[in-house]
Amino acid sequence: MTDLILHTHATAGTPADDAVSLPFDLRQRARLRVVLVSGRDAGLKLPRGTILRGGAVLLGTGGLQVRVNAAPETVSTVRCADPWALARAAYHLGNRHVWVQVGEGWLRYLHDHVLDAMVRGLGLEVTVEEAPFEPEGGAYSSGHEQGHGHGHAHGHRHEHEHQHEHEHEHGHGHGHGHAHDNDRAHGLAAGHGSRHHHTAHAPGVCE
């Protein structure tokens, strides 16, 4: 068992002695074993519902200060100059309880071929690339969101192998179906750059 426990968020602007790079799924976990950039083992012991944002600094036993970096991961990015088309895509993604990162003129979600096909069907382009993922937090949920100057946000988390799709229609109940089979979390963000990628084109509003 590691003797280094990261248990408290430091105040904004606190310098770091070490760092750890984690994808979004792991930045939602309150209990986790990690390996720091220095090679040292450490454990997270944070309040339940915490979401770590890239740039957050954690305090550890012995006074060690560790910066959390958002690791690049495979994402699907939708770019379009038409805000109506992007809002429509965001609505359909949110209707499936998918975490979505929102930037100026683009949306991003964890890559999934079923969601990509849905978005292409709306007439938008989908670019599959490697980039840090910082999705929106829920506007009304409780929890702790730290890093990048964010306040409290979405602490609600789903670990699953089967994601349930909730279709909401006027006057109707909820139809449930399996949207896709990734072991991922859900929700709705603000963004970072990207690296190696390929683009899937579809005819429609963004061409």
Structure summary:
The chain is mostly beta strands.
Shape: elongated
Radius of gyration: 18 Å
Number of strands: 15
**SSE order, as H and E?**
EEEEEEEEHEEHEEEEE
Outline the low-pLDDT stretches. Answer: 149-202
Total helical segments: 2
- The average pLDDT value, as a whole number, equals 78
User: Numbering strands along the chain, what is their spatial order in the largest sheet?
Assistant: 2-7-6-1-4-3
Q: What is the CATH C-level name of the largest domain?
A: Alpha Beta
Strand count, sense and barrel status of the largest sheet are: 6 strands, mixed
The proportion of residues in beta strands is: 35-45%
Q: Output the structural class.
A: mainly beta
- Per the CATH scheme, the topology name of the largest domain is Alpha-Beta Plaits
Give the N-terminus to C-terminus distance in angstroms: 55 Å
CATH architecture tag of the largest domain: 2-Layer Sandwich
Helix content: 10-25%
The CATH superfamily label of the largest domain reads: UreE, C-terminal domain
Tell me the quaternary state. Answer: single chain
What does this structure look like?
- This protein has 207 residues and is mainly beta.
- It has 2 domains: 5-70, HSP40/DNAj peptide-binding domain; 73-200, Alpha-Beta Plaits.
- 10% of the residues lie in helices and 36% in strands.
- It has helices at residues 83-94, 113-121; strands spanning 5-9, 18-22, 31-35, 41-45, 50-52, 57-60, 65-70, 73-79, 101-103, 106-110, 126-131, 144-146, 163-168, 174-180, 197-200.
- Strands 2-7-6-1-4-3 form a 6-stranded mixed beta sheet, with no helix packed on it. A 5-stranded antiparallel beta sheet has the order 9-10-8-11-15.
- The chain is elongated, with a radius of gyration of 18 Å.
